[in-house]
Amino acid sequence: MNSSTSSARVLVVEDDPKISRLLVDCLEAEGLSVDVADNGQVAVNFIRHEPPALVLLDLMLPGLNGVAVCRSVRPFYNGPIIMLTARIDEIDRLMGLDSGADDYVCKPFSPREVMARVKAQLRRLQGRVATAQNPWSIDDERHRIAWQGQWLELTRQEFRLFRLLLARPGHAVSRGWLYNSLQGDNRNVGDHEVDIHLKTLQGKLQAIDPSFACINPVYGVGYRFDCPHPAPQSVLSHRTQPA
Are residue 49 and residue 146 in the same domain, yes or no? Predict the structure, then answer.
């Protein structure tokens, strides 16, 4: 593991002490810093106040299970979550993806497989940070996002969806997960509202640059945001900049 990822902090959320200890030993052997939570509510509080680089999350936790933890933290946590599960049927896999999990490891697992998944997600995280923070700017208070200083005026729902997509450039996210993100407004949401909002958002992006056809459907999964490349400064200088 290279030096940029070896210092990352990982949160292990697992109620079985033997499995937890095994995971901690594997992660620390790779030079990673590790914190441990043995139930879902403790994990949510920890992620909110001390967000780790990555979360290894057991599905079957006492009280708040892994799916509920994912759904609770995704509005404020954009890091990768790898679900650990002994239940491998398709329904559980889809539930996890809809909740915002990035990957799965099925029990019983080999330490080598876990570390391969962790390393892959940490490498992907580095790419996300570099792409999502520059050239995009996010204004949470005013619910708007800018491309190289050009602000998009967004509705609350558009802002919420776009913020989630920006955190995962090039990564397919499920339509169900995006749908669940709109439920936080405590109102009824129609089945096709995600599609309507994303179509409107795509139009606002293309108003900045017609080539920005960057919110793309992924058949059988949901949507993927393909971050456009910054244009040369000579081109941007001819565009109107916001006050």
Answer: no
